[in-house]
Amino acid sequence: MWRNSSRDRPKRKMHTLNTTTTGSQDPIDPNRNLDPDQYPHHRNPNHPQSRRLRGFAATAAAASMGQADSDVNNGNIAGETSSGGGGGGGGGGKGKREREKEKERTKLRERHRRAITSRMLAGLRQYGNFPLPARADMNDVIAALAREAGWSVDADGTTYRQSHHQTNHVVQFPTRSIESPLSSTTLKKAALDCPQHPSLRIDENLSPVSLDSVVIAESDHPGNGRYTGASPIPSVGCVDANQLIQDVHSTERRNDFAENFYVPVYAMLPVGIIDNCGQLVDPQGVRQELSYMKSLNVDGVAIDCWWGIVEGWNPQKYVWSGYRELFNLIRDFKFKLQVVMAFHEYGGNASGNVMISLPQWVLEIGKNNPDIFFTDREGRRSFECLNWSIDKERVLHGRTGIEVYFDFMRSFRSEFDDLFVEGLIAAIEIGLGASGELKYPSFPERMGWIYPGIGEFQCYDKYSQTSLLKEAKSRGFAFWGKGPENAGQYNSQPHETGFFQERGEYDSYYGRFFLNWYSQLLIGHAENVLSLANLAFEETKIIVKIPAIYWSYKTASHAAELTAGYYNPSNRDGYSPVFESLKKYSVTVKFVCPGPQMSSNEHEEALADPEGLSWQVVNAAWDKGLLIGGENAITCFDREGCMRLIEMAKPRNHPDSNHFSFFTYHQPSPLVQGSTCFADLDYFIKRMHGDLQR
To answer: What is the Cα–Cα distance from 143 to 655, expressed in whole angstroms?
Structure first.
């Protein structure tokens, strides 16, 4: 049989050739092993049957054979082969298209469901004070709701009420709702009337504003193994009423905005107090400014230390004299200092009359080699900061980008060693991108960007393109080694682009590859600089500023965050990988808290969600064990705006009692006692210090 099969091989080739040449519509090879149940009129007598059918399968095959013989006898086989076969092919193609459409509809429904879930979770965290993780699912929500209602939920999902597992004598205290407060008299009466029981068990999952499942139970009850997490309160016969009242009141105080927490407040000094020659402009005015801050009981001040001023004219020639004079004034007032290593430009956007560029010698290098700056798809250069792709390229008079940063930081540490020894300098903030924040310069106003434009990717310089092509080749897809060509302009909206629109290219294989590479370049730059910052500033707190990019947050793609370097679409957490990397260097995150500068209608038009973004970023950082500080985005708040900042800095009822470790206040310049912001700033500082209650 194998000899017959080998002799048939040339015939199979000839048959295939003839089929292709004559254009036959029958795609079936007569020598191929076919299922006799599907094709009873195509059998290969030379090929042995693999297995004889038995039982129900044999009965079904016999019925199929009988039907086939009937069709042959009735002359229907030709019709089946010609018209039926052609119709089957068309029906199969149509069915495939329908299946693909259904797949896309399913994806759309899933994205819509996730968007709704995200908004629900944000609302529950903000307004319901539920301790949900940053990437919670519906199981977490159901468990939190069950616990709020007085149920117990085990780790394996087992849900029950405590009272259902207690068969011995149980005394139920009166429950309290928001409408009917649990008074001290009621508690005393309930406690004095209770019988003799060895212990009082209180459900640990009580809601912050109610005391719902307070029961007296036998300590040796068989079901008590479930409640090992509950803390028994030993009592002689019955719990002491005053002790119970004290516990309830202490819980209420602990959950009331965490008022007992002291959050230090730093005031940001205005930019123009050091001129472009590195000298202090108005010492007397600065002294008056500091005295106002002292009257407000501010804990310290923050000051930008500009690379473009200190090393402005010649490489490795640092001018610190103006900053030395300023720091001596600050020392007289006994303020703590937060110093910002500002490696970025100031004044290129709407920043007032002050203009501070990158060092002049860097700009001269850029004239001959403009690829040291970030570049958009049209080839326009951004001079806000140096391109991250030259971190390890020796293009700055023989030094790499990170060597330039390290030399600057090391010079500062050496110059002001006495202030570090005294403890006057409490923290160093490292500028890692545009505006000193860890982000790409994707929203340059000098190039016409206007809120809420999605911005543009900044990766079209030769160094970034080389890195992208290298990464694409390593994946085996060299044609992926280029930036997107359908990502729109600076002021485009997501639905207007092929890349960011619903079901757009951002979620394709290429889109995921590119966005992962783009965000990893941001993370890699942070790691490169922070590793050297830890060497320069040993045992000093390091701060990294995270931006608040909240527009387009209600879309599936989160386009504005993508162009800024945060791979955070609705189906992916883009902040946890960043914070996981920052955790390795023990940094403190400073989050720019979005302000109420726009109405709700304007936020809706921009598809913005400042609250949702804030809760995602803050909780993601806390989940990674990072300390968090805050900074206001606008310079003047009314009382309502102050309350929003306080709620974010000291969240009520947080299960881990997390709160901001400090807050940097951007003040009006100059701050005068008669200004409209002065009274509200005084109120804000007292609330952050815990000196005022609601």
So the answer is: 15
Residue 90 has pLDDT above 80, yes or no: no
Q: What share of the chain is helix, strand, coil (3-state, %, to 5)?
A: 45, 10, 45
Q: Decide if 414 is inside a domain.
A: yes
Please report, to the nearest 10 degrees, the dihedral formed by the alpha carbons of residues 296, 299, 304, 305 taken in order: 130
- d(Cα 149, Cα 522) in Å, to the nearest integer? 44
Band of pLDDT at residue 148, cut at 50, 70 and 90: confident
pLDDT category at 25 given cuts 50, 70, 90 is very low
What does each C-alpha distance from 134 to 310, 554, 569, 590, 607 come to in angstroms? 41, 17, 14, 18, 21
Query: What CATH number is associated with residue 375?
Result: 3.20.20.80
Q: What pLDDT was estimated at residue 643?
A: 83
Distance of CA 54 to the CA centre of its chain: 59
Residue 532 lies in a domain: yes
Are 291 and 430 in the same domain? yes
For the chain, how far is it from start to end, CA to CA, in angstroms?
Answer: 95
- Give me the domain span that covers residue 125: 116-143
The answer to whether 652 touches 609, Cβ cutoff 8 Å, is no
Which pTM was predicted?
A: 0.66
226 part of a folded domain = no
Distance CA 109, CA 102 (A): 10
631 in active site:
yes
Q: Which residues pair with 306 in a beta bridge?
A: 342
The residues with which 340 forms a beta bridge, in sequence order, are 304, 429
Active-site annotation holder among 311, 471, 561, 631: 631
| Catalytic, out of 289, 311, 437, 611 | 437
CB atoms within 10 A of CB 27: 8
Of 213 and 63, the structure prediction assigns the larger pLDDT to 63
Residue where a domain terminates, one of 92, 124, 143: 143
Please tell me the predicted confidence (pLDDT) of residue 236.
38
